[in-house]
Amino acid sequence: MNALKQYKGLPKPIYWIFLARLVSAMGAFVHPFLAIYLTETLGYSTAQAGLYVTYSVAAYVPGSMIGGRLVDQLGRKRVLLIFQALAAFCYLAVVIFPNPNWIPWFLIASGFFNSVAQPAHGAITADLTTPENRQQAFSFLYLGMNIGFAVGPLIAGFLFNRFLMWIFIGDAATTLIALVFIAKGVPETMPVASVIEMGAERTEEQREEGSLLQVLFRRPTLLVFSLILTVISFVVVQMHFTVPLQVNDWFGPERGKAYFGMLMSVNGLAVITFTPFLVHWTKKNSSIFNVALSNLFYLVAVFMLGIRGPLPWYFLMMLVWTAGEVLQVTNYSVYLANHTPENYRGRFNSIINIIQGTGYGVGPLIMGEYLETHTTWEIWPWIQLLTVGATLAVLGLFLWERRVTRQ
Questions:
Q1: pLDDT one-digit tens code per residue, 261-291
Q2: How many Cβ atoms sit within 10 Å of the Cβ of residue 369?
Q3: In angstroms, rounded to a whole number, what is the distance separating the alpha carbons of residues 167 and 155?
Q4: DSSP label at 402?
């Protein structure tokens, strides 16, 4: 119960955002079945479907950059409401104009509008919180999102087989309902406080002047941190690329797919179970120390993946991996918020997520080429080496910051 009590007393708008995240995630029907929809329903080849998915991913970069600037200049809430509504209307357009030649472009446009709105999420939460309650706030929102994701795909699977167009209507409707919660319960959080009003203990968040790159290079620890996250994202994406291939090879095609699905279910349940307890136990630590701790959990998990074990061994590995995932997700946003100028939060969220996302993008590409001539088991020594390096780098950053703080 103590683990849940930590979520009491958060700023009231955080609870409205929690409801919005929960409803939006419960209605995330389209994305999990996108590849199947493009190939089996619309009749596109896997190459064509892959090309459209690539376009959608590529649209994230300009969308996020545009969104970061708009969030800092026009307001967090305004940008979030406008562009997520446009993303929802793109799904409705699929229902209204069901032309197979147009549908992929509606989906790409939806992804673009969502990417414009994305920087507003982190900026709003950072604006509403302080370093003392940010970990609880970010973890609470992460928990709500995962509860929703635990339910959404089950509903989507039912709708896909029986009422196909309702996956688009439902996704759009839940997005719009979530936006009603934001409109009703969350104020515009564009900061107007001066450096003096903010307080000496939050000098890292003080306003800055200059270009984005100038401000970023004035904060080298943040740049180093984002580069470390790129390495970790390269490691993390292997759970969705290399691990299913390995499980399929090790247990056979018939059992492998079912076993990997079971592993993903263990991951989802563990996220919901672990989040309040891990946050409660680590909330007194600095966010950078908790990120280092998360890397240690990842390190243990990738060493376990290098061992040919039975299915229970993989379940144990997934529990260790999930502990690292929870600590990573609930702390890296806190570190970013604590080190970002208040008037650059949108742009910093944008650029650092793009830097970090490079790891997710190139991970499958590089390892896919490697697997042309090697087995999945031969990947893990390289992944282990990368994880060791990232862990040592984060620990070094933690020790350096602690030394600077004491001076």
A1: 788 888 888 999 999 999 989 988 989 999 9
A2: 10
A3: 9
A4: H
CA distance 277 to 272: 10
Q: Is residue 193 classed as helix, strand or coil in its secondary structure?
A: coil
Q: 219-246: per-residue pLDDT in tens?
A: 788 888 888 999 999 999 888 778 888 8
Q: Which domains does the chain have, with CATH numbers?
A: 8-189 (1.20.1250.20), 210-406 (1.20.1250.20)
pLDDT of 15-67, one tens digit each?
Answer: 999 999 999 988 888 876 776 788 778 888 867 776 777 777 778 888 988 99
CA distances from residue 24 to 34, 118, 150, 173 in whole angstroms, order as listed: 17, 13, 12, 9
Written as six digits, the tokens of 175 are 């997005």
**Cα–Cα dist 254/266, whole Å:** 20
For helices 220-236 and 238-251, give the axis angle rounded to 10 degrees: 20
Q: Say how far apart CA 407 and CA 401 lie, in whole Å.
A: 10
Q: Are 14 and 137 in contact (CB under 8 A)?
A: yes
- Report the alpha-carbon distance of residue 139 to residue 271 in Å, rounded: 11
**Which residue, chain included where needed, has tokens 């990232």?**
390
Give the CA angle between residues 319, 324, 326 to the nearest 5°.
Answer: 90
154 residue type, one letter: L
Q: Greatest CA separation found in the chain?
A: 65
> Which tokens sit at 332?
């890296």
Type of residue numbered 34: L
Q: For the chain, give the number of residues.
A: 407
CA distance 224 to 64: 21
> Distance between CA atoms of 91 and 304, rounded to whole angstroms?
41
As a whole number of Å, the end-to-end CA separation of the chain is 39
Cα–Cα–Cα angle for 398, 403, 407, rounded to 5 degrees? 150
* Token pair belonging to 53: 């998915």
How far apart CA 167 and CA 130 sit, in angstroms, is 38
Quote the DSSP letter at residue 124: H
Tokens 């959404």 identify what position?
A: 152
Between CA 51 and CA 30 the distance in angstroms is: 17
| DSSP helix/strand/coil, 211 | coil
Q: Which amino acid is at 291?
A: V
pLDDT value for 66: 92
